[in-house]
Amino acid sequence: MKDLILVIAKALVDHPDDVRIHIKDDDRATTYELSVHPEDVGKVIGKQGRIAKAMRTVVTSASVKSSKRVIVDIIS
Fold first, then answer.
1. Could you tell me the CA-to-CA distances from 2 to 7, 28, 76 in Å, in that order?
2. Which helix (H) or strand (E) holds 27?
3. Which of helix, strand or coil describes residue 28?
4. pTM exceeds 0.70 for this model
5. What is the rounded (10 degree) CA torsion for 68, 9, 42, 47?
6. Interval 13-60: pLDDT, tens
7. Which domains are delineated in the chain?
8. Which residue, of 17, 19, 47, 49, is most buried by count of CB atoms within 10 Å of its CB?
């Protein structure tokens, strides 16, 4: 899942070397905190959050077989 998020995020930003993911694992959910360069935050979020929503949809669809909820947070 981490690799999927990295591939999507690196394709969107101008500074792909600054893309980082921190994973927080809980009993009920796994949270992926996506950190990008401050100039690239708008590109990852998109107009009215459309790109962020699409990224969350893809990640959620890919994790259907797991019993945990998957959350993607975008951090500047």
1. 9, 18, 18
2. none
3. coil
4. yes
5. -70
6. 999 999 999 999 998 899 999 999 999 999 999 999 999 999 999 999
7. 2-75 (3.30.300.20)
8. 19
